[in-house]
Each structure stands twice: as C-alpha cells, then as structure tokens.
Amino acid sequence: MKEFLGKDMRLTNQRRIILEELQSVSTHPTADEVYGLVRQKMPRISLGTVYRNLEVLSSLGLVRKLENAAGQKRFDGDTSPHHHIRCEVCGKVGDIYDAPDISGIEKGLHSDFQVTGFILEFSGICPHCQARQQPEQ
Amino acid sequence: MKEFLGKDMRLTNQRRIILEELQSVSTHPTADEVYGLVRQKMPRISLGTVYRNLEVLSSLGLVRKLENAAGQKRFDGDTSPHHHIRCEVCGKVGDIYDAPDISGIEKGLHSDFQVTGFILEFSGICPHCQARQQPEQ
DNA sequence: TCAAAATTTGATAACCATTACTAATTGAGC
DNA sequence: GCTCAATTAGTAATGGTTATCAAATTTTGA
Ligand SMILES: [Mn+2]
Ligand SMILES: [Mn+2]
Ligand SMILES: [Zn+2]
Ligand SMILES: [Zn+2]
Predict the structure, then answer these.
(1) Among the residues of chain B, which ranges form H helices?
(2) Confidence band for A17, pLDDT divided at 50, 70 and 90
(3) Which of A28, A84, B76, B121 could be joined to B64 by an S-S link, Cβ 3.0–4.6 Å?
(4) Cβ-based interface (< 8 Å): residues of B facing A
(5) For residues B116 and A121, is the Cβ–Cβ distance under 8 A?
(6) Which residues of chain B have pLDDT under 70?
(7) Distance in angstroms: CA A47, C1' D10
C-alpha cells in the first residue's frame, strides 16, 4: 500500500486497517459499517477518521466509491472492473461480473456536454428481501 | 392531471403548479430550484409542500426523480424514455436521447439477486464548466 | 345548506449522513 | 531520540430531506 501513497502521506495503522477490512469483505459496506468492522481491530478509531480515509483511499484508486444511486455511499475493496446491482428494498449491493460489454457506448452521443464516461447499475431484489416479500404461495 | 390522481387525492393548486413549472423547464431542477420557480406564481408556498408533492408526483409517474448520493435529488418533468448526463464539476444534468438501445441487457445475468432493471447514466462536463476549465490555450 | 370528516398546507422542528474544526498524537526523515 | 508536518479523536456544524401538527381547504352526505 505504501507505494500508492503520495510523498507527503503517511501509512498510519488506521489507513492500513481500513483498507484491509474493506478488502476482506464483499458486502460493499457503508462508511458506518466500515467503522463497525475496523473497531473490532482498533476500538478507539473515530468515525471521522474512517470517512476521511475512505475518501483518501478512493481518490488514490485503492477502493471504489459507489455513489450513483439513492441512499448512503458504499465502498468496495475490489477495484477490478465489474458492475453492481442494488436491492430496491434494502439498498444492499451485489456484484455483476458477466454483463455484456458496452464500453464505447458514450462515443458519438449528441450532447453539448463533453462526454467522459458512464455508469451502468442494475437494480433488483436481494435474496434476503426475496424471502421476506413472498412468504406465502 | 386529475385522471392520474388516486381516488383519495385532491388536485390542489400547489400540486398543479409544481407539475406545470417542472414541465416548463428542461434543467432537471433540485427541489429547492422547483421551490424558486413555483414561488414566482405562488409566493406563499412552503418548501415542505414542494418536497411532499414532488414525491407524490414521482410515485404517480408524472415526473421522474433522479437520485444520486453525490448530490441533491433532481426532478424531470419529461417522462419520455431518455438517459441523462451529469456534470462532474457542478452536478448539472443534461438529456441524452440518442444512446444505443441496450434494453434487455439485464436478462441472463449471473446473480443471486432477482434482476429487475438498470440505469445507464453518463458523466461529463457541461458547457459552462468547459469554458471555466480551459481559460487559456 | 351546513356540519362533520378527510386531505392538504405552511411553519417549524427533527433527523442523519457527511464534513469541518481543533488540540493532541504520531509517523518518518534526519 | 528530535523535530515537525500529517493525522487523529472527539465533537460541533452543515445541509438536504423528512416528520410533525395545528390551521386551512375541500369533500361528503344527511
Ligand atoms: Mn463490487
Ligand atoms: Mn431529462
Ligand atoms: Zn434487500
Ligand atoms: Zn458543470
């Protein structure tokens, strides 16, 4: 991790553990949930430190910040290219690795904006909420 | 508009003017900006009434609600199918009417979620911010 | 026609995720 | 180890949104 930090940035225990915990789960936790995870290893860390470092890590490209839908921001320790699906009921986020490749779809659009990219996000219902929603029949 | 309201819902002046104002612009205003527009016609309306009715109108399908964790919600009086592009600098939203059709892309994905749909949103830089960002050369 | 019931409003308070502030602490180069 | 800028813990502030509720408005129906 050290090699990714800028020259005036320090590798603190807080920073290292936040990244490690985020990389150890596949749940796309919110900042608050990351806080819960990290406190098991480092009980005196503050929520502000978690927010601050999630922002630092995402601007360094070490984590992905998911902010293109309703609800709280979520964070992803998996920076490999993949899409996400968000539960319409509870907001939980899952991974989609096999979506058709639509790269380049942003080229040649008619817009006065300078187009730089796109985000494709799926919506659905997570296993837990499926079970809750059809209890009968 | 009356025909779209539920049987226990009333067509108030507030409700009608909010929809009319939203349909009269193509700027995808925030709730606060809708409040500003509506107050020109109805100076004593409250911000809470604007929020409440934007929610009602969007649940009836009369307006589109554009949610994003990166900023404020925005509202669209144009319910015809089209995509959006968001300015990375200022958050302004524009329309994209000529994106390639990717409907059906959500079918056959490998996920334990029940997949119901998708959102494709473009990102870019709006004309105003383009002018501000490259002042030289 | 008129009073009771239902809905909606305006005003304001509460909420809550996130950011800002600041004195104390600490990582890293010398 | 010493120095000092970067970082932290703790807490306050922010800001968009939602909740609350008495008053106003509209509908119902006797
Ligand atoms: Mn992911
Ligand atoms: Mn639009
Ligand atoms: Zn769910
Ligand atoms: Zn812009």
Answers:
(1) 13-24, 31-41, 47-59, 127-133
(2) very high
(3) B76
(4) 67-70, 85, 87-88, 94-100, 102, 105-106, 109-127, 130
(5) no
(6) 69, 134-137
(7) 10
